[in-house]
Amino acid sequence: MQLNSFITNTKRLMKLAYPILIAQLIQNLMGFADTVMAGRVSSTDMAAVAVASSIWLPLILTIYGLIMALAAIVSQLAGANKFEQVANETYQTAWIALTLGVALIVLYVLISPVVIEHVSLETNLKTLMFDYLGYIIWGGPGFCLYLVLRNYSEGLSFTKPTMIISIIGLIINIPANYIFIYGEFGMPALGGAGCGIATAIVYWVMFLSMLVYCYFSKHLQHAPLFKRFYWPQWSAIKNILSIGLPIAMSLLFEVSLFCAVAIILAPFGADVVASHQIAINFSGLVFMVPLSLAMAVTIQVGFAVGDGDHEKAKEICRYSVVLGLVIAIVTAALSLGFRHEIAAIYTHEIPVIELAASLMFLAALFQFSDAIQVISAGALRGYKDTKSILYITFLSYWGVGLSIGLILGLTNWIIEPIGPYGFWIGFISGLTTAAIFLAWRLKVIQKRFDQALMVG
Predict the structure, then answer these.
(1) Burial of 271 by CB count in 10 Å (0-12 exposed, 13-18 middle, 19+ buried)?
(2) C-alpha distances in angstroms, 345 versus 42, 280, 331, 349, 356?
(3) Taking the chain, what is the end-to-end CA distance rounded to the nearest angstrom?
(4) In angstroms, rounded to a whole number, what is the distance separating the alpha carbons of residues 161 and 146?
(5) Overall pTM > 0.70
(6) Segments in 307-402 forming alpha helices (H)
(7) 147 contacts: CB under 8 Å, gap ≥ 6
(8) What is the Cα 337 distance to its own chain's centre?
(9) What CA–CA distance (Å, rounded) separates 419 from 264?
(10) Engineering a disulfide at 135: which of 122, 195, 197, 269 sits with its beta carbon 3.0 to 4.6 angstroms away?
(11) How far is residue 171's CA from residue 366's CA, in Å, rounded to a whole number?
(12) How far is CA 141 from each of CA 29, 105, 355, rounded to the nearest angstrom?
């Protein structure tokens, strides 16, 4: 592997990846701001925001995964110089997004009265939680449409608008929280539920900001969205769904696994759950780095495939995995070296800090597998090979990861039960399995493209 080529490819990847990374971190920071500002009202308000977010985020992340198909489609069209087809694909994705956004509202209106009656929570907590969901749900269509325009822009290799608009969202989020939580400027004081209104407003502002950018940007004039209007076309929608649904489901498998483990650990006590949550939260922040790199890989691989340059696509995959492992070495070293200090940011309770630090030791180990699996998945999205991601992630996360976690954590089949450590060993096993099979699948796809090129 040539050093100069590695440096050149790294610069190209990081130019695409760093705005995505900043945008992802800002999204997490918004959630952090909601939790902290609600917590200043009461612990009940903070708990309501936390519980409601744990319901909302898997839903919106699943939709996000589906819409991610657009970036792969657009990048391949751009690589093939088929810019005239980009607008239609974007409109068809927008119809899907709008339908899902409206469906969220309809679903909430229909089932929330029934669910409220059967949820066993303290009355004030339950009221705040469902009020939060009832407010944020109205921002769903705006956020879904924002994701469409974001993937349109990123598919054309323009990722900085995502970063800038996320910053705008954060700037609006904090004062909006203040207004609706505490009842300023004549607004009612809604407590933690007010974060739902603030977030819904931010979602619509982000969509409108991205819409303005896409309309006026000179960078996107070679693939204009507004010269022609496109009504829904089932064949195009079906193709988008065939690519996007496996991505959405694979994201859901991963998110739901961590949620399931948190529920399974509940009988072990508050300290264990808190320690697990600290380790998961910090691991999620670290994961933003390889995830952003994987999104950049999707764009570059898609462009190379569309251009018919399969050697370039393979080169991007090869160098991106090396870069991901280099990043993993750095993040793992920092996680290991400062794990006690990091845990102390979340809590002052010594037993929780000690347990969280020991779990973060295991979290540092799976960062290598995590980097390989997420980058390989990003490359496969660039090839539009997404069904394999679905099958492999389900087998790895739920088949291998959760099974090993249950066996080691709760049974004496192999050793005496080791509780949360068993589940984290399960995470390592699941992610390593995913890394092996996704990397193998990527090699298979590349070999098929090489054979097709030879035949052609």
Answers:
(1) middle
(2) 20, 14, 17, 11, 11
(3) 28
(4) 11
(5) yes
(6) 310-337, 339-346, 350-382, 387-393
(7) 63, 64, 67, 97
(8) 27
(9) 10
(10) 197
(11) 34
(12) 22, 9, 41
How far is Cα of residue 400 from the mean position of the Cα atoms in its chain? 22
Residue 137 has a CB neighbour count (10 Å cut-off) of: 21
CA–CA dist 58, 53 (Å, integer):
9
Residue type, 148: V
CA angle 150, 5, 161 (to 5 degrees): 15
> CA quadruple 208, 212, 213, 215: dihedral positive or negative?
positive
Distance, in Å, from the CA atom of 384 to the CA atom of 79, rounded to the nearest integer, reads 14
Measured distance CA(207)–CA(111) in Å, rounded: 27
Contact predicate 316/300, CB 8 Å = yes
Return the SS3 of 41.
Answer: coil
Which tokens belong to 401?
A: 């990861």
| The one-letter amino acid at 241 | L
CA–CA gap between residue 254 and residue 380 (Å, rounded): 17
* DSSP type of residue 227: S
C-alpha closest to that of 138 among 175, 100, 181, 104: 104
257 and 401 in contact (C-beta within 8 Å)?
Answer: yes
Structure tokens at 278: 């600290």
Mean pLDDT by 10 residues, the chain (456 residues): 77 89 88 78 75 82 92 94 95 97 92 71 75 92 96 94 94 92 85 90 96 93 92 95 93 81 78 81 86 93 91 91 93 92 83 89 90 95 93 94 93 89 93 95 90 67
SS3 164: helix
CA dist 258 to 179, 265, 281, 401, 424, Å? Answer: 33, 11, 10, 10, 10
Structure tokens at 211: 């819409």
* Burial bucket for residue 264 (CB in 10 Å: 0-12, 13-18, 19+): middle
Q: Give residue 242's identity as a one-letter amino acid code.
A: S
Give the closest residue to 38 by CA, choosing from 21, 52, 18, 20.
52
Rounded-to-integer distance, Cα 6 and Cα 316, Å? 9
